[in-house]
Amino acid sequence: MSVTIRSSAWGGSATNTSDLLINYITDLIQPLEPQLRFAALGIRKDVPTGYDRLLFPQPQQIGVPSSTMQGSSGGSVWGGGTSIFGSTFASGSVGVTAITEGVNPSAITWGANAYSASGYQYGVLVQVSDLLVRGSAIEVVENCSQQIQNAIARMVDDAIQVVVNAGANGVIYAGGKTARASLASGDLLTQTEMTKAWRNLSSVNASGLEAYDGAYYAAVIHPTVMADLMTNTGSGGWVDVGRYTNPMDLKEGKMKDFRGIRYLESAWVNYFNSNTNVFPTTVVGKNSYGWGYLQAPTPYIVSTPDSNNPLNVYTSISGKVTLGVTRFEDSPGVYRIARCESATAS
C-alpha cells in the first residue's frame, strides 16, 4: 500500500516541519492542464440507475433512388455510396417509387438501428498520512481532490477519443498517401486535406452531416499539427487567405473558423505509432458520436478510522467514473466522422 508521507517537497519531514516553509509561500503554482474537447462535442445521454447499456436509436431512412425519377436514366448521387439511401435503409427494397394509377405500391419494411455501448469503469486512489494532512503548508485534501477530478476528466476525454478515432472509413491521409503505414515525416497536414474532410461530411449519404449551429464542423487538432497548417503557404491556405481578409488573425496566430471548420486545439490528442508519429485531426458534426455516464464522476474522502486503518494514520482520497461511448454510422458513403492523419514537423 502506497501512503503519501511528508517530505521536503511538501515542506516537511521528520526533521523539517512544514512550519519552517509556510512563511515563504505566497501562492500555489498551478499545474498545466490540457484543454479537453471530445466530451463537449458528442451527444451526451446519461444512463439511469437500473440499466447497463447506453443506447442511441436511429430511425432508418426510406430510400429515394434517383432512377425512380420520371425521365431519369439512372446514375448515382455524390456522397450516396452504392445507392442514394446508403446502408441505413434496411430491407434492400426500393423506397419511394412511381405509382401505377389505381395500384398501391408494395409495402416496405421499416424500423430503427441501435447504437449502444456498455460501461467502462475507471478510478484512482490516493492515501496521505495524517501528519501530512495536519502539518502541510497547503490544503492537502482540497488540492488532492482537485487533481483527482482533473485526472478523471482527462480519462473521460481519453476514453471518448479512443472510440471516436477508431473508425476505418472517412480517413484522409496527408501527402496523397493511402494508408497510415505509408505516411513519412514530410507528410504534413495542409488545407487540401481539411477541405476534403469538409466536402465529404457535407455530402455524405447524399444529405450531408448536420453542422454545429448550421454553420461549422468542429476539428479537434493538436497544436503541433495546427502549426503545420498555419505555416503552410499554399494557395487557398490560411496564410494566403488571411493576408487579404483578416490580417489580425495572422498577427494573433488564431485560425478559429476557416473554410467551414471551427478549429479546437487540444494538446490531449493521442497519436498513432507508425513509421512516424501519426496525428489525427478529427472532424465531426452535430450527430457524429454519443457518450454518457453510467456512473457520474464521484469523489470519495475517507478520514475516519476503520478496520483497515484503526489508528486513522492516513486519509483516503479517491474518485471513480463509469461511461460508455459509441460511434454512429461508419461505412463507406455513410460515415459521420472524417479523420485527417498526418505527420508533424514540430
Which terms summarize this structure?
346 residues, four-stranded mixed β-sheet, flat, alpha/beta, Major capsid protein gp5 fold, 7 helices, 12 strands
What can be said about this structure in brief?
The chain has 346 residues and is of the alpha/beta class.
Summarize the helices and strands and which ones pair or pack.
Blueprint lengths: L37 H4 L1 E2 L8 E7 L52 E7 L1 E10 H6 L4 H25 L6 E3 L17 H13 L13 E5 L1 H9 L6 H8 L1 H6 L4 E2 L2 E5 L13 E6 L4 E14 L11 E14 L9 E6 L4
Parallel strand pairs: 1-10, 5-12, 6-8
Antiparallel strand pairs: 2-3, 4-11, 6-9, 7-8, 9-12, 10-11
Tally of individual domains: 3
> How confident overall, as mean pLDDT?
82
> Widest sheet: strand order?
5-12-9-6-8-7
User: What share of the residues does DSSP label as strand, in percent?
Assistant: 15-25%
Which radius of gyration do the C-alpha atoms yield?
A: 27 Å
According to DSSP, the number of beta strands is: 12
Number of helices: 7
Assign a percent range to the helix content.
10-25%
Question: What overall geometry do the principal axes of the alpha carbons give?
Answer: flat
- H/E element sequence: HEEEEHHEHEHHHEEEEEE
Largest sheet: 6 strands, mixed
Distance between the termini: 41 Å
Poorly predicted sequence stretches spanning 5 or more consecutive residues: 85-91, 240-245
